[in-house]
Write a structure and sequence with these properties.
By secondary structure, this protein is an alpha/beta fold. The protein has helices at about 55-70, 95-110, 145-155, 170-185, 245-260, 280-290, 315-325; strands at about 10-15, 20-25, 30-40, 75-80, 85-90, 120-125, 135-145, 160-165, 190-195, 200-205, 210-215, 265-270, 290-295, 330. A 6-stranded mixed sheet has the order 3-2-1-4-8-14, with helices on both faces. A 5-stranded mixed sheet has the order 11-10-9-12-13, with helices on both faces. α4 (about 170-185) crosses α7 (about 315-325) and α5 packs across α6.
Length: about 350
């Protein structure tokens, strides 16, 4: 699988359902500079990580982006979409690190219904969660080897060398956590990462992660064509589209409030490709009673060397996090090739 040490200035590649986002940094870790950036659309309708055969049109587009975008080197890091990852919060006994690793691997088989040879499993401690908190509660994260290998095969076909992979939503969450931790006392806050078909919700406080849930979100647009449009503040008329998502978030917040003794989050920090969609902020504010804010990634690097990408900058939070000096990732590649 992936076992190689991480390298500086890797090309970060976020693999969405039908799009690839590429970003590479230069400069020091204290003053990173965005050296190259590119957006590559997949050629087909099948999600990129589900394609059994590498699409040659997508490979050609990826090669063109690498050649024309100012990228250097071949080493890359991969951010996987939430749809491709299995997660679950579980209780485990207090164990030594090596025993914990083994226990997590077998728990993934039991709880997620997968074959041990088919997944790579890791975990994050949940410090004060709804199942009792540390050391008994962890977030189990399992990546299917076939999914990682398919995504990596696409990258190697374009001349890249994948060195590590992790869940894009957790990479973005790490970026948000480090940004908030470095600027103020860490409040109780919620983090919401919105991809094209999945939402990842996390609740954090100064102790770290206290709750995580990933779920499909379903647009309400067109579900009730006879409904009277909402009128009022800016973007409020679009909030109807996001009501199911906001109601799901509300259920999660109430669950944590009851079972973990948690206070209501001071704000909800938004990240991901759909974070700036009209109506998201209004829906969360009206349904959940919490202020919604956008992650401010323009403050974390110098973007002056590149043409700013089209669309919301918050869509690049996972890629930027992956490109920054790394903490341990879910999967690593020491042999610089895919099994």
């Amino acid at each position: 699988m992936f076992n190689s040490p991480s390298q500086r200035n890797v090309i970060a590649v976020e693999c969405g359902s039908t799009v690839l986002r590429l970003l590479q940094l230069s400069g020091s870790s204290a003053s990173p500079i965005v050296q190259a950036i590119a957006h590559v659309d997949g050629a087909g309708s099948t999600p990129l990580f589900e394609q059994a055969i590498v699409d040659e049109v997508t490979v050609r587009r990826l090669k063109d982006a690498l050649r024309g975008g100012g990228f250097s080197g071949r080493a890359c890091a991969l951010a996987l979409p939430a749809k491709s990852i299995l997660t679950e919060s579980i209780e485990v006994p207090a164990l030594a690190s090596d025993e914990m690793k083994e226990s997590i691997a077998w728990t993934a088989v039991d709880r997620l219904g997968v074959d041990r040879a088919d997944v790579v499993a890791g975990h994050l401690s949940i410090r004060a969660g709804t199942l009792g908190g540390a050391p008994s509660e962890v977030l189990l994260i399992a990546a299917r080897r076939a999914v990682v290998n398919r995504a990596a095969l696409l990258l190697t076909a374009a001349g890249l060398e994948p060195h590590r992979a992790e869940l894009g939503a957790l990479a973005a969450m790490r970026l948000a956590w480090n940004q908030i931790k470095s600027t103020s006392l860490v409040p109780h806050f919620a983090f919401l990462h919105l991809e094209s078909d999945r939402a990842t919700l996390a609740l954090l406080n100064r102790a770290g992660l206290i709750f995580h849930r990933a779920f499909p979100w379903d647009s309400s647009a067109g579900s009730n064509p006879s409904a009277i449009p909402v009128a009022g503040e800016e973007d409020e008329s679009n909030a109807w589209r996001w009501r199911h998502l906001a109601e799901e978030i509300l259920l999660c917040l109430r669950h944590v409030e009851r079972h973990a003794g948690g206070s209501w989050p001071e704000f909800v920090l938004l990240s991901g490709a759909l974070a700036e969609e009209p109506g998201v902020v209004s829906a969360i504010g009206s349904v959940c009673g919490a202020e919604a804010r956008l992650i401010q990634i323009e403050e974390l690097a110098d973007w002056s060397k590149v043409t700013r990408p089209k669309g919301p900058l918050s869509a690049w939070s996972s890629a930027l996090s992956l490109a920054l000096p790394q903490q341990p990732a879910l999967v690593e590649n020491k042999v610089q090739r895919v099994a």
